[in-house]
Design brief:
homodimer; 178 residues; alpha/beta; two-stranded antiparallel ribbon; 6 helices; globular
């Protein structure tokens, strides 16, 4: 199973690294996409290789999308290709997990209206304005969508994200003769 | 179930935060012990509350011990009470997971002689001198002991640590992804 993380410079380090290591612990292959390939740097100075440029991402290759927070989403939401990729996950009903400022990308992609979600405190008004049923809670789950507020929510965020991933494994299609 | 992390200032941020959040995702209560109670600060600037002073730690309350790396172990290994606590985990056969410079504490506690382990590259000679069967591998498991080298080993480190925790038999088995 393959996971995609989309981020950029000034990511919130723990919100990228903790899911990245967790998904790999679980045996998933994890690609990190950014505006261009190469090292991206977090607010706390961690560097990690974005091994794929967003222009080269093929959403159909991935089972799950994770959007960390920090300052990265402010840049990513301005990129049309990022928004196309995000919409592809929603159209396919695949799990999408966004934390902190990550939901800003979902707003710009136009996929949040009428959904239930949470986000970083300072983003809450923007979510409400976008027609989101906002709750101040460590994690909100609405169908394919898992959202959290901040790094201290990572245990709940990943617990719910892992449930979505395990559910994919359980309903993986068996090879059938046609 | 209760886990103990022992660390101090200048910890390697990801080696503390990733296990901390992972254990809490799993439903464990996690205490962080340091030389004194209060905030400790990582090399990358993350701050986290050490909610218990090492003098007040009662090892019998915990099922598992995690020792992150960074510069913290250099200070911790000089503290007699830290070494007493570590020895108590080994004497009880409880899981102990140490990464990077974390195994330095185990050397000073005198619990590594004849054991198989790994550690950060620059600590390897010290491990060999202490009579350890050292291997350069992402994770080594020897009985109750799980060791890894560096942050990029965190997926393997936590996969093996979680196996030890699940083997304690105090939690319902989890669905594992293939």
């Amino acid at each position: 199973m393959r996971a995609l993380i989309i981020s950029a410079n000034r990511f919130e380090d723990s919100e990228l690294l903790v899911p990245y290591y967790r998904l790999r612990e679980e045996g998933l292959t994890v690609d990190i996409a950014s505006l261009t390939k190469g090292l991206i740097k977090g607010k706390h100075g961690y560097e990690i290789e974005a091994n794929v440029a967003i222009a080269d991402v093929r959403p159909e290759q991935y089972s799950v999308l994770v959007l960390p927070g920090g300052k990265a989403p402010a840049a990513l939401r301005e990129n049309k290709r990022v928004l196309d990729v995000v919409r592809a996950f929603f159209e396919a009903g695949k799990p999408v997990s966004a934390i902190c400022h990550g939901p800003q990308i979902l707003i710009s992609a136009g996929v949040l209206k009428g959904r239930t979600a949470t986000c970083y405190r300072s983003v809450a008004d923007e979510l409400r304005s976008a027609g989101v049923n906002y709750h101040d809670a460590e994690v909100m789950v609405d169908g394919n969508l898992v959202t959290s507020r901040q790094p201290s929510d990572l245990p709940a965020f990943l617990r719910e994200t892992m449930k979505k991933i395990h559910a994919l494994g359980e309903k993986a299609p068996r090879v059938a003769a046609s």
